[in-house]
Amino acid sequence: MADINVVLVVACALVDADKRVLIAQRPEGKTLAGLWEFPGGKLHEGEGPEACLVRELREELCIVVEIPCLAPLTFASHAYPDFHLLMPLFVCRRWEGTVTALEAQRLTWVRPNRLRDYKMPPADEPLIAHLMTLLMP
After folding, report:
1. How far apart are CA 131 and CA 133, in angstroms?
2. Residue 126: helix, strand or coil by DSSP?
3. I want to staple 97 with a disulfide (CB 3.0 to 4.6 A). Which of 24, 26, 63, 91 is the partner?
4. For residues 10 and 53, what is the distance between their CA atoms, to the nearest angstrom?
5. Are 96 and 58 within 8 A, CB to CB?
């Protein structure tokens, strides 16, 4: 049996007061450039998922999130050709600061029922149904 390279990344569905979700477009030069995704990133050595999100959201979006404001919702498990991705998805409704793109990514706030209008990486697509169940009346 071949060794599988499992990559653990963590993602966050930031939800505003109007129940819209923030998505970011991957900038040119990155893998899967042009696709839309939930903010987040790879864990550093010895870092937990919540701490990773606090760091990534500060670095990518210039906002401050406290760990108790992160609620686990679901996770994605997807086999890409050269690695297997595991991605927990957290929901966050409270943060400090104004969401600002710091890494040349485009940002947009989207109603959950419109998320499928944005081309996403295969691992992100199954997460949409969970967000719709959580946020739609």
Report:
1. 5
2. coil
3. 63
4. 7
5. no
> Is the pLDDT assigned to residue 75 strictly greater than 90?
yes
- Beta-bridged to residue 46, according to DSSP, are none
What is the pLDDT averaged over residues 109-120? 97
Q: How confident is the model at residue 1 (pLDDT cuts 50, 70, 90)?
A: low
pTM value?
Answer: 0.93
Helices (H), 1-137: 49-61, 127-135
Annotate the chain with three-state secondary structure.
CCCCCEEEEEEEEEECCCCCEEEEECCCCCCCCCCEECCEEECCCCCCHHHHHHHHHHHHHCCECCHHHEEEEEEEEEECCCCEEEEEEEEECCCECCCCCCCCCEEEEECHHHHHHCCCCCCCCCHHHHHHHHHCC
pLDDT band at 12 (very low <50, low <70, confident <90, very high): very high
Q: Is the pLDDT of residue 46 over 70?
A: yes
The CA distance from 103 to 87, in Å, is: 21
Which residue do the tokens 């760091």 mark? Answer: 55
